[in-house]
Amino acid sequence: MLAAKELFRINNHKRLSRLALLKRIIFITLGSIIMGVALELFLVPNAILDGGITGISIILSHFTNLQLGLFIFILNIPFFFIGYKQIGKTFAISTLYGIAVMSLTTYFLHPVPSFTEELFLVTIFGGIILGAGVGIVIRFGGSLDGTELLSILLNKKLPFSVGEVIMFFNIIIFTCAGFVFGWDRAMYSLITYFIASKTIDIVIQGLDESKSAWIISDNTNEIGDAILARLGRGVTYLNGEGAFTGADKKVIFCVITRLEEAKLKSIVEEFDPHAFLAVGNISEVRGGRFKKKDIH
Are 295 and 85 in contact (CB under 8 A)? Predict the structure, then answer.
């Protein structure tokens, strides 16, 4: 068990350096603006939807004639608190900031006419731009839609994977779009969502729900304790031997979600900038204790 002083030190970790913080702000701002551009200058004027909370917001905006950004911001507020509890303060603040920037972008771009009304071009380029914006924000530790967080929570209580829960939500949304905007628009929306998902794949190098992390460092205990305290993830220590030096090494193994990857990297960087870190995609996790612990 950690001493009280050690727990305090780990939970009250160093703040991001000014350069790292500035980099995160710049890229989350950029990604949020890019998504706003995709929505207002490609998709929304042509009645093409995205999935998740954004898709619901587009439908509500259509019925009420209120600004799209207003619904996006309000509907995502509950997920700010979910993100705070499940992943941490930094992620929650980054997410709230990104959603605010995206909402403002849609507000200011609303009077601007669509770049094109050709549905083929709208579907292709709208999906690519949308996916690029979302991918940039996720890569730098934020999120622009609360559906995935909700899916992670429901996954603990339902016999379905996170991806299956997200797919179920989006099928309902695109079905509603078919009744509201027409079935051709619903099918175009589905294609756009697929293209956006693949683009996100490229930007953040993998959309799998879970990732395995292998860490080799001289500060394994400090890194392991920080992962447990800040991410709420259990770690396993393995004994290894360097083939070149023959020296004994302690290896950390843990399983995280993709939304936690940026946080894990920052923890490792803080305690050992020269540590070996390998992160890989996992198609399925069963058994063991892969369960989120509370972050205090």
Answer: yes
Q: Compute the distance between CA of residue 187 and CA of residue 263 in angstroms, rounded to an integer.
A: 36
Single-letter code of the amino acid located at 132: A
Closest by alpha carbon to 56, among 35, 71, 70, 43? Answer: 71
Closest of 290, 283, 254 to residue 161, by C-alpha: 283
Residue 105 φ/ψ, nearest 5 degrees: -60, -45
CA 38 to chain centre: 18
pLDDT in tens, 170-227: 888 889 889 989 899 999 999 998 898 888 877 865 444 678 899 998 888 999 999 9
CB atoms within 10 A of CB 120: 10
Closest to 106 in 3D by CA, of 139, 71, 142, 56? 71
Give phi and psi for 257, each to the nearest 5.
Answer: -90, 160
Residue found by looking up tokens 């078919």 in the block: 178
- Confidence check: pLDDT of 14 > 70: no
**HSE of 92, CA atoms in CB hemisphere, 13 A:** 13
- Calpha distance 92→167 (Å, rounded): 24
Beta bridge partners of 211: 256, 281
